[in-house]
Specification:
43 strands; 549 residues; mainly beta; five-stranded antiparallel β-sheet
Length: 549
């Protein structure tokens, strides 16, 4: 009976998707019954740095011996690689992608569980296993999970950050690219009482120095009451601040300057409400909403162009968008599972980001007024237990919306990858939250927005230049901009005012590999919000600073 049901669904699927499939999309992945448990949302990146993007997706496994598979697809839907793994990816673990070894191509990083040991497996751009890093602590997360890849200590190399679990409790783990613990880590978060858990961390700059901080949420059930601990750690493992709520959160935290004050905040939900913590860990929003949150993941975006960030989350099977002060902008009623993370980007070329998210059977797109965009919803057969991505996968200047769905039963296992090309021009600067936890490195970090007229096409991780946030920020007299160049390039650094007008040229010339500092003083500037931009070969990045009296 299940086979007949599946064939009927497949017939409907082909009748529907041939209307909007591009190239050789959609792609269908078949699995032997009981050999894989599900398919994780796709991640898009230019793996081999040739200007053409690829799509990476994995199938899960479990502790019963069901192993996992890594798939790499070309932009046109052709399968580049299929790698059967002697481990399983668990729980619903996303591939994380960055240039781990600084060879100008990107690596795919997956935490795995095996019968004899746990490893972080690092694959090359064609699915070749480059190295396996034995790890003591396996991934800890109830819902979606990923390792975070970021240069958190500003040494020009990528660190691997994740929440780990072992018999005696949960930990925050930070490794270098050789799998060695960074000084000060791991950190015990919760002692095991059979009910402790920790979530995917977020990394970002909370105190406006040269290094990034790590924010992680952990929880214990019924000890004595449900409690979640939210902590921020410095790169040396010392505690920056700690906060607590008396409900359970399976949400992954995100970091962004939601109120445009020059400092980043931490945003998260629990089963009872939504919260914003300032740079010192104090509540700037504590909005109780009852017990209908369903552990919603979050997207941040500037929908109204005021440089504040709005917050997208789920409550009582509705998609909601609010301002940072807790004021609701709109709610969209839908049977939507909140831990299907939403994404945000301008996919209709009206100049403002749109919200893209999955229901169980379709993909939706809404504008900031809560109206469904033309051409949506787009039906997906099977169960869309996934998060979408938005990108220019085909590299043709058009917006592509990508998602997946799967159906797992004892006698059939099927996954489908969908790619819809939208008749809109792709502009990277308007794609503000493009996948789970923001980017292929899953940092959960919304970098500072830029004013109209200034292009921002940055990808801080995996680039040949690393631009740090100025310090101090805000400042009264002088501040320092630090950047690192990994190969010889022509570099231009300028300062713009809040209207996008160039007001200061800091540097224009060639830089050899190394780390450099530039000073800004207040002699030629009045108090206010400014942006500094670094341009080099195929690289543009912009950051914000504030000059105060």
């Amino acid at each position: 009976m299940r086979i007949i049901k599946y064939l009927i669904l497949q017939l409907c699927f082909f009748q529907l998707t041939t209307l909007f499939g591009q190239g050789n999309w959609p792609q269908t992945i078949y699995g032997e019954p009981n050999t894989w448990i599900g398919m994780v949302s796709p991640v898009i990146a230019d793996l081999d740095n040739d200007g053409i993007k690829e799509l990476v997706i994995t199938t899960q496994g479990n502790a019963d011996g069901h192993l996992s598979t890594l798939f790499i697809f070309e932009a046109n839907g052709d399968q580049r690689s299929k790698v059967d793994v002697d481990y399983y990816f668990d729980p619903r673990t996303f591939p994380s992608i960055a240039d781990i070894d600084k060879d100008d191509s990107l690596e795919i990083v997956m935490p795995c569980v095996g019968t004899k040991d746990n490893q972080i497996l690092i694959y090359g751009s064609h699915g070749n296993l480059e190295k396996g890093l034995p790890i003591e602590f396996q991934m800890s997360d109830d819902l979606y999970a990923a390792v975070v890849l970021a240069d958190i200590n500003n040494d020009t190399t990528i660190e691997i950050t994740y929440s780990g679990w072992y018999l005696d409790g949960t930990r925050l783990v930070v490794l270098n690219n050789n799998g060695l613990n960074m000084a000060g880590f791991p950190i015990l978060l919760e002692e095991n009482n059979g009910t402790c858990q920790s979530n995917t961390p977020a990394v970002g700059n909370l105190d406006n120095d040269a290094d990034w901080e790590i924010v992680v949420i952990s929880h214990r059930n019924n000890e004595p009451a449900d409690t979640s601990n939210i902590r921020a750690f410095k790169v040396d493992g010392s505690l920056l601040w700690a906060q607590k709520i008396f409900s359970i959160t399976d949400c992954d935290p995100v970091i962004g300057d939601v109120n445009n004050d020059g400092f980043n905040e931490v945003v998260f939900t629990s089963e009872a409400g939504i919260y914003i913590l300032d740079k010192n860990g104090n509540f700037s929003l504590n909005l109780p909403l009852g017990m209908g949150m369903s552990h919603s993941n979050i997207a941040l975006a500037d929908f109204d162009g005021d440089n504040d960030l709005e917050i997208v989350f789920q409550y009582e099977e509705q998609l909601n968008v609010i301002h940072h002060n807790g004021t609701f902008i709109f709610s969209f009623p839908l049977d939507w599972i909140g831990h299907h993370p939403p994404v945000a980007g301008d996919i209709d070329n009206d100049g403002t980001p749109d919200i893209v998210f999955n229901s169980d059977t379709a993909i939706y797109a809404l504008n900031i007024n809560g109206n469904v965009l033309d051409g949506f919803p787009k039906p997906m057969q099977l169960i869309a237990y996934s998060s979408p991505s938005i990108d220019d996968l085909h590299n043709d200047g058009k917006v592509d919306v990508v998602s997946s769905a799967n159906w797992i039963e004892p006698d059939v296992a099927v996954g489908i990858i969908y790619v819809w090309e939208i008749d809109s021009n792709y502009q990277q600067s308007t794609m503000q939250w493009t996948m789970f936890q923001h980017d292929p490195q899953h940092t959960g970090y919304y970098l500072n927005s830029t004013p109209v007229g200034i292009s921002d096409e940055s990808q801080r991780i995996g680039q040949s230049i690393i631009l740090s946030q100025n310090y101090p920020n805000p400042f009264k007299l002088t501040t320092t901009i630090k950047f690192s160049v990994l190969n010889t390039q022509n570099v231009t650094v300028k300062v713009f005012d809040s209207f996008g007008k160039s007001v200061l040229d800091l540097f224009n010339g060639q830089k050899l590999p190394g780390t450099y500092e530039l000073k800004i003083d207040r002699k030629s500037l009045s108090s206010g919000v400014y942006f500094y931009q670094l341009q080099a070969d195929n690289f543009v990045e912009t950051k914000k600073f504030i000059l105060v009296d």
